[in-house]
């Protein structure tokens, strides 16, 4: 299994791309700022890669503040759609673009409306976001920052794997959620909200806390003999090995640390 680095999305003032999550629809929103150029293209490819790794039901891109008078970013959005379509289950990609924008015109000319949803406003896009989607299989649990919380998290994931007939994933998923919750207890020290959702034949695990600091994956060499594995971020190395993908993003003044667990190998990212 590939030992990929985590997908960390740290939003700060002046960011060209902002990513936010919506728990109820299990979707992500990506707001793009600035004029289209090579640097913004790199930022967007990275952001799309991170979003698809998290495997939301819907990825909604708000392009109203994107300065692209010639519609030169069209190939990137077509490629993003292809990458989203490779997920199992597929990630629905939707764009919010002013109808008169050249980008919208270029996308319409190549027939993108046949497979790519485009909306003129964010309220319209959000209203349509869950249309046609079945309610996700999801379990949630609020946890106190206490030593017994990882045990409660493991019990919930075990139940989910059995109820959803994903027993082959149980050992890896239990290891991942145990470390995510333990890390939240130790380093965030705030109430935690655990979400366990089914993604086709895989699992999505997320722990939300009120500490905005993103986790740090330490190098193996920094571990001192006799020191507990969990100390100073080493427990996240268990997540890095057992998860198919994992990462973190800022959320409402705190953060969400997430992981996906799938059969055997990592799913190819965009």
From TrEMBL:
SUPFAM superfamilies named in the record: ATPase domain of HSP90 chaperone/DNA topoisomerase II/histidine kinase (SSF55874)
Superkingdom of the organism of origin: Bacteria
Signal sequence interval, chain numbering: none
Protein name, as recorded: Uncharacterized protein
């Amino acid at each position: 299994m590939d030992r990929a680095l985590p997908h960390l999305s740290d939003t700060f003032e002046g960011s060209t791309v902002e990513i936010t999550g919506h728990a109820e629809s299990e979707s992500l929103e990506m707001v793009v700022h600035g004029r289209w150029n090579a640097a913004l293209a790199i930022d967007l490819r990275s952001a799309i890669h991170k979003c698809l790794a998290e495997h939301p039901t819907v990825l909604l891109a708000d392009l109203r503040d994107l300065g692209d008078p010639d519609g030169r970013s069209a190939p990137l959005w077509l490629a993003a759609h292809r990458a989203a379509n490779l997920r199992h289950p597929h990630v629905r990609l939707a764009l919010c673009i002013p109808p008169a924008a050249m980008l919208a015109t270029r996308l319409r000319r190549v027939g993108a409306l046949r497979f790519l949803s485009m909306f003129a406003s964010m309220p319209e896009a959000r209203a349509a976001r869950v249309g046609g989607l079945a309610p996700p299989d999801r379990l949630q649990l609020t946890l106190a920052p206490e030593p017994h919380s990882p045990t409660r998290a493991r019990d919930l994931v075990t139940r989910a794997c059995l109820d959803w007939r994903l027993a082959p994933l149980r050992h890896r998923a239990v290891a991942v959620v145990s470390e995510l919750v333990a890390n939240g207890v130790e380093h965030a020290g705030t109430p935690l909200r655990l979400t366990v959702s089914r993604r086709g034949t895989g699992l999505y695990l997320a722990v939300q806390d009120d500490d905005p600091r993103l986790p740090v994956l330490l190098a193996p060499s920094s571990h001192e003999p006799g020191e507990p594995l969990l100390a100073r971020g080493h427990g996240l190395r268990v997540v890095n090995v057992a998860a198919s993908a994992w990462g973190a993003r800022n959320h409402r003044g705190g953060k969400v640390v997430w992981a996906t667990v799938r059969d055997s190998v990592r799913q190819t990212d965009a």
